[in-house]
Amino acid sequence: MRLESVAALRTLPPRTRVVMAANLVSSVGTGLVQPFLVLYLTRVRGLPVGTATAVISVISVASLVGGPVAGRLADGFGIRPTAAAAMATAAVGTAGFALVTEVSGAVLAGLTYGLAYGAMLSVWNVVIARSTQGESRSAAFGLQFVALNVGVGLGGVLGGIFASTADPGRFQLLYVCDGLSFLVAGALLVLALGGRRAPSPSDHDTVPEAGTGARGYGVVLRDRALLKVLALTVALMVVGYGQLESSIPGLVAVQGMDARIMAWAFVANTCCIVLIQAVAVTRISRTPPAALLAATATSWAGCWLLLLLAAAGAGTAVEAALVIGALAVFAVGEALLAVALPTLVNSLAPEVFRGRYNGAYSAAMSTGLVIGPLLGGALLGAEQTWLLPVVLGLGCVMCAGCAVLLGRRSPRAPAAAQPAPEVYDTGGHEVPYRVEQLEGGEVR
C-alpha cells in the first residue's frame, strides 16, 4: 500500500511542513481536554450540567465572531501578528478553565477560547493557502486534517490515562498543558511566517475601487460564487458535522445502546480518516471540489441510512455494528470535505481579500455547528426516533444535488486556480504579490 500522504508531504514547501507541525502540536493539546470539559465542570468544579453545556454553546457562538475578526486583521495587519494573537488568546482561554471555581469564570474562559477558536480556523487556512498552490494546496489541506485527527486522538489517549475526577490538580495540569501547546504552536507559526507583511493595494495589479467594501466584508458579500459555497457549507455543517458529537450520541442513548458503542465508533471514525488521507490524499486533491462535496453529502446520507437501520432495533450486536459502520462511512465524507471546502474558498479568494474570505468561511462553519445540534435535539425530542436519520439523511441528499449544481453553474474554475506569490522581507527589497484578474472574475 502506497502512502500518498508521505509523498505529498515531501512535495510541500518547508514553511508549510512547519505549519503542519504546529497544527499537530496544538491538536495534541486540544485532545488532552476536549472529551472532558463537561465532566470537569460538573464533577470536579461542581457546576450544574445545564451550565456546563451552556459553556459549550458560548464557545460555539463566540467562534462566530472570532473567524471574521481574524480574517479582517489578517488582511489589514498581516497573518503573522494575527496568528500570534489567536494562539496567545487560545492559550489564555483554555488555561483559564484550570482556574474556574464559579459560573462567571467558566463563561469567561469559554468566551475567550471561542473567539480564539474561530480565529484559528481562519489563520490555519490563510497560512496554508498563501504558502501553497494548485494541487499542493489541496493536498496540504488534507494533510492538515490528518494532523488534526492524529493529534486529537493521541491527546485523547494521554488525557484519558492521566485525568482523574478524584484529583482536580490533574485536570488543571491538562488545561495548562493545552495552553502551552498553543504557545508552542504559535511560536512555530511566527517563525514559519518569517518577515512576511500584509499586502497593500499598491502591491497588486488589481486594486479595489472606491466603494467596493475593501475595508470590510462588503466585497465578500457581493461575491455570488462565494455566497453559494458558504450556504452549502452551513447546510453541510447542519446535516453532518453539527450532529457528530451531539445528536448521533443522543440517538444511541435514546435507543438504550451501550455507551461503549460510541467510543468504538469514534475510534473507527478517526482510523478511517487517517487511513483514507494516508493512501488517497493525492487522488483526492486532483478531484474537483464540487465533486468532492457531492461525494461528502452522499457518504453522510449513507451514514444516516445505517443509523436508521440501527434505530429500528435489530439486536444488540447488529446495532453496534451499524453504528460503528455509520461513523466509519461518515469519515469518508470528512476526509473529502477537509480538502474540498477550504480549497474551493481559497480558489475564489483574491489575495488582497484572502483573510476575509476565510473569515466568512469560518463563520459559516460555526453557524452550521450552532444550528445543527439545535435541530438534532428537536428531532430527537419527537416521539419517533426515526425522524432524526430520515430528515437529516434527506438533507444530505439535497446537499449532494446542490453540490452538483454548484459544479455546473460556477463561473470560475476553482481546481485550476493558482494563488499569488507571497511577500517577504528581503533586506529592504520587497517581492510583491501579484493577482491577475481574468475574464469572468477568475483569479489566478
UniProtKB/TrEMBL annotation:
Cell membrane keyword on record: yes
Residues of the signal peptide: none
Any Pfam family matching the protein: MFS_1
Topology term for the membrane: Multi-pass membrane protein
TM helices/strands, residue ranges: 21-41, 47-70, 82-100, 106-127, 139-161, 173-194, 225-241, 261-280, 292-314, 320-345, 357-380, 386-406
Domain Major facilitator superfamily (MFS) profile: 15-411
Keyword set, alphabetical order: Cell membrane, Membrane, Transmembrane, Transmembrane helix, Transport
Location relative to the cell: Cell membrane
PROSITE patterns per record: MFS
PANTHER family reported for this sequence: MULTIDRUG RESISTANCE PROTEIN MDTH, RESISTANCE PROTEIN MDTM, PUTATIVE-RELATED-RELATED
Name of the featured protein: MFS transporter
